[in-house]
Amino acid sequence: MSSFEHLHLEIPKSDKQRIVIIGGGFGGIQLVKTLQKSNFQIVLLDRHNYHTFQPLLYQVATAGLEPDSIAGALRQLFARHKDFYFRMARVTGIDSERKVIKTLVGELEYDLLVIANGSKTNYFGDKEMYNRTFPMKQIPQALDLRSHMLQNFEQTVLSKEDEEKDRLTNFVIVGGGPTGVEVAGALGELKKHVLPNDYPDIDFDIMKLHLVDAGPRLLAGMSEKSSAKAELYLKDFDVDVRLNTRLVSYDGRDVVLTDGTVIPAKTVIWAAGVTGNIMDGLPKESIGGGRIIVNEFNEVKGLQDVFALGDIAGMYTAQTPKGHPMVAPVAIQQATNLGKNLMRAQKGKSLKPFVYKDKGSMATIGRNRAVVDLPKFHFGGLFAWMVWMFIHLMSIVGFRNRLVILANWVWNYLTYDRGTRLIIRTFVRNKDYKPGDTL
Amino acid sequence: MSSFEHLHLEIPKSDKQRIVIIGGGFGGIQLVKTLQKSNFQIVLLDRHNYHTFQPLLYQVATAGLEPDSIAGALRQLFARHKDFYFRMARVTGIDSERKVIKTLVGELEYDLLVIANGSKTNYFGDKEMYNRTFPMKQIPQALDLRSHMLQNFEQTVLSKEDEEKDRLTNFVIVGGGPTGVEVAGALGELKKHVLPNDYPDIDFDIMKLHLVDAGPRLLAGMSEKSSAKAELYLKDFDVDVRLNTRLVSYDGRDVVLTDGTVIPAKTVIWAAGVTGNIMDGLPKESIGGGRIIVNEFNEVKGLQDVFALGDIAGMYTAQTPKGHPMVAPVAIQQATNLGKNLMRAQKGKSLKPFVYKDKGSMATIGRNRAVVDLPKFHFGGLFAWMVWMFIHLMSIVGFRNRLVILANWVWNYLTYDRGTRLIIRTFVRNKDYKPGDTL
């Protein structure tokens, strides 16, 4: 989209109070659902026209699923809501004095504002990493990685030099959180079961997977038992797990690690962390720790009628000095609580503070294996893997998506195959995303 | 893919004769299948890693199907073939003296060469049309059109001026062949059944579909009865069908037609024709009518051991003075005949000339309606539509694709919905394809 002068972000005025929600992620859509029968006018803004089910993004990147099955068109999700308006618009800033949100297609007044625009890949300011590595936050990024990976194997077939073959088939994954671990597992499975059928000319012993994490264990947010199990599972896939290690430099050809290792690699997947998507115009006092500071009612510090929730919200309390983990359940629970509070406030009732109920966390590592942490119980293996599948299938939006994903999983499981190995997007090295997009 | 110096197109030498096949379209893959148990070494080259089932491309463009279901990964199709090599390579030319094919990743020697690289969109040399209109030949093009179309509706919601709204919601389709007619029907169905649910803010009476053809009737390759029926079906969808009309100019904003009509439109779909994908290095005498001239054994005029088949091949005989129609059945039948001839020749047997068996043609126009021409019988309506679906489903490669397409069709039919309305590709106006790519 090039020029927007002719566009105007206008929503019909009504006698109801207008709540503007920025972001159609887990928090944003939960808030719309919670407010469905409320007495507000709801406006949802997102720069995409779809909600992304991020926990399965790594399966799009590794050719297990097509993007349509992990996304839900936002208009479709709320087609039956009354007094609901979706607008595709990229928010650029806020003017809290005038109670106005600024977007690329014009301004919009709010009575109440909820900032739920989540987090973006954190490159810690390193432009080289931003330019040369693959992030894993959005569907287009996952599709880029998939096409790049398949192109690398096509080039490996055409390559004669051993070092070049190594470079094309090596994968370095930076970050041992759930994304890094799940990508490594999925790549391990591709290497073991899928790719050798496609590329009989390639000796897949040369394909090496390296998982690098700065901390002392994988899945730092989970139990030590699960961390150890995940490491074991990955090593079964021949993944080279390097803890207490950082990436020193990467020039697009060779990765240099803090332990001095040099790995020739055309593919570096950057899953080292995320940081809040902070818009312009917020007062300084509202920002802290890379997030927007909120109280236990999700009210933004220093502003009136403005709320933040999910990854972007830093609710720094005695129990959560670093804020809550940046995961979907926090966003969903905050959205439910905030939605109810907004309806309570409208009726003059008192507000309830947010209390996070940690229902557990999980990660899968290839076929038949996962780790699950419940509050009082940790387990792994086949049963954990089945729990992982069931929970994800039930969490995804839309009956159609559930069916398509289940069908794909059954197919992939039974055939040791992947249905979606098309190189559709031409990979662009030194990508040129808009500033502030993901850097 | 930027630099290819390090890549080499090398295939292990064997004592068998090497057949190099350029293009994994309908003809190319049929030839590989026919030669499966032959005594040749087979090398298949394509610039994509997948075969495209082009007859359903319009459903990808109009959000009815995802690309994976109409494509087949070429490596996967022939995973069990022996002495078969696929290489992803863009062919640039031929040196018939040295019996060498030139590609972006190096040269390759052939004993026998089969040119089956099909046709490309014919802009009749008009750069403006090439830059500003949407072709419908390849999967990335169909995805571009889909994202563009959905972006237009998002912008319509944000637009205040009536002329701008018209421009965003008008579609001009140039060319009344099967592609143009089927796209028009699919858009008509979107307008009538699908889009109004998504965009309650838009009055869809403003969305106008215009189908322009230079000739006196639609579907010129079919019977007059079917042409008339197709026009009737389209008019039921309020499609403005303009025959004996050409596009005079298009500046990206307004279409001007030969009858003087000016249509404000941001979307012009170019389905006005195709022309052979002729590579460099062929002698002048081998080329005629935009195709490579072949005899009835598909041997290229003026060359030794070089064959051409399908869209690219002009078999100009007394019965077919303009060559055969550029459709899949011709390519498939020529490939079968050529494959058998190559095996016969190897055994010293005599060759059989190609005879086209026209089994009929068909086109679908939205829900429940199609036209079918069999050699001695023409029919339309619901039964034709069911025949159309059955034939297409049975023709597509791969059991998985068949299942996925059937499931999507049933879903779309029952719910009046489309599952895949994601704006994933940012539309680039004034596209900059490589020279010779599609112009």
Shape of chain A: globular
- Care to count the β-strands of chain A? 25
Structural class of chain A: alpha/beta
Radius of gyration of chain A: 22 Å
- Number of helical elements of chain A: 11
Family (chains A, B): Belongs to the NADH dehydrogenase family.
EC number (chains A, B): 1.6.5.9
Protein name (chains A, B): NADH:ubiquinone reductase (non-electrogenic)
Keywords (chains A, B): FAD, Flavoprotein, Membrane, NAD, Oxidoreductase, Transit peptide, Transmembrane, Transmembrane helix
Describe the structure.
The structure is a homodimer of 439-residue chains. With 439 residues, chain A is of the alpha/beta class. Chain A folds into two domains: 17-47 and 89-121 and 276-346, FAD/NAD(P)-binding domain (3-Layer(bba) Sandwich), CATH 3.50.50; 127-272 and 367-415, FAD/NAD(P)-binding domain, CATH 3.50.50. Chain A is built from eleven helices and 25 strands. Chain A has helices spanning 26-34, 57-61, 74-77, 127-132, 139-157, 162-169, 178-198, 224-236, 328-346, 381-395, 399-415; strands spanning 17-22, 40-46, 50-52, 71-73, 84-88, 91-95, 100-103, 106-109, 112-115, 119-121, 171-174, 209-212, 239-242, 247-250, 254-257, 262-264, 267-270, 274-276, 287-288, 291-293, 306-308, 313-314, 361-364, 370-374, 377-380. In chain A, the strands form eight sheets. In chain A, strands 5-2-1-9-21 form a five-stranded parallel beta sheet, with helices on one face. In chain A, strands 13-12-11-17 form a four-stranded parallel beta sheet. Chain A has a three-stranded antiparallel beta sheet with strand order 6-7-8, with no helix packed on it. In chain A, strand 12 (209-212), helix 8 (224-236) and strand 13 form a beta-alpha-beta unit. In chain A, helix 1 (26-34) packs parallel to helix 9 (328-346). Chain A is globular. The interface between A and B is large, with 57 and 57 residues. Chains A, B: Its EC number is 1.6.5.9. Chains A, B: Residues 18-335 form the FAD/NAD(P)-binding domain. Chains A, B: It comes from Roseivirga thermotolerans. Chains A, B: Residues 359-414 form the External alternative NADH-ubiquinone oxidoreductase-like C-terminal domain.
